[in-house]
Amino acid sequence: MWRRTPPAIFPVCLGLLGLGIGWRSASEVLPVAHEIGDILLGIALAYFLYFLAFYLRKLAARPAVLLEDMTSPPARAGVAAAAMSMMLLAAALLPLGVSVPQVWWTGVILQIGASAVVCHAIWRDPPESRQFTPFQYLTFVGPVIGPIAGIPLGYVNESILLTLAALVAYLIITAGYGRRLLHSRPPVHMRPSLFIFLAPNCLFAISFGLLGFDSAFFVFYWVANASALALLLLVPWLIKGGWSPVWASFTFPAAAFVHVQILAVAKGAGAWAVAGVYSGLTIATPVVLIIAYRFAMSWITGELAEQTGAAKA
């Protein structure tokens, strides 16, 4: 099975790690049991390292398989999500102090490498297929997740640089994909990918909030709230095509929404933010866990590799 480990599994890993950190962080501002976060982080860590080890083994067997995996936007996003998961892993390990700086820098370097590989893949695409997609948020806006662990580690200047670089990419992708939506709607099976739009708005709010730029924090915070409400109302339309690996798009944005609400509570946003934490945890927890279980089962049967077109080492 390891020879066809699909990169599409890593957005789910990102969602699981985010959910675990969300529960742990919620216990610091609200009467929530911290043990829940510890248990979820243990599950998330095992889940991520398990699939990361298999994917690294796949690359070691035949390195060229990485370029072959870059044939679709979801797969490209998956490689970037692996790097984002590594940066988020550093945040999960902060209380333990287990080689955290090395883990964080590994994630940053992997994110840069993933962006370079995806740029190469896009350049090789026929001109008519070079289009903006929500999956590009993970590849090119993914560095915005860096400050979550980077700032506590003391990498403030580096975190500012990562955030600003991601902001430029965010503006370009949002403008480009927004223009594309004016002319055409995504096919039914790709509709869940629209949910990804929630993630960068939440992550920019978190990053600016941690950096102390409160005005920028509240701008993105309210944009994230408005986006979450709109997308929640669109869920029946988004899932009309039934289950597919693109449902991974629901996991990490839901976890990011929980994080931004927790930070808003700490910044005195009041009852709205408290309600956001509880509602976010209530929705995100079953959604992320069920999708993670479904992905693991479909990987075991080989269905996930077939559906995502994963290359074989």
How does this structure look, described?
The chain is mostly helical. The protein has a single domain (2-308), classed as Glycosyltransferase. It is built from 13 helices and no strands. The chain has helices spanning 10-29, 34-61, 65-68, 73-93, 100-124, 136-140, 147-150, 156-183, 198-211, 214-238, 251-266, 271-301, 303-308. Helix 1 runs parallel beside helix 11 and helix 9 packs parallel to helix 11 (251-266). The chain is globular.
CATH architecture: Alpha/alpha barrel
Q: Please give the number of β-strands.
A: 0
- Beta-strand residue fraction: under 5%
Task: Tell me the CATH topology.
Answer: Glycosyltransferase
Number of domains: 1
Short key terms for the protein model shown above:
mainly alpha, Glycosyltransferase, single chain, 313 residues, globular
Brief digest:
By secondary structure, the protein is an all-alpha fold. 73% of the residues lie in helices and 0% in strands.
List strands and helices in order, with pairings.
Layout: H1 10-29, H2 34-61, H3 65-68, H4 73-93, H5 100-124, H6 136-140, H7 147-150, H8 156-183, H9 198-211, H10 214-238, H11 251-266, H12 271-301, H13 303-308
Helix pairs in contact: 1-2, 1-4, 1-11, 1-12, 2-4, 4-5, 8-9, 9-10, 9-11, 10-11, 11-12
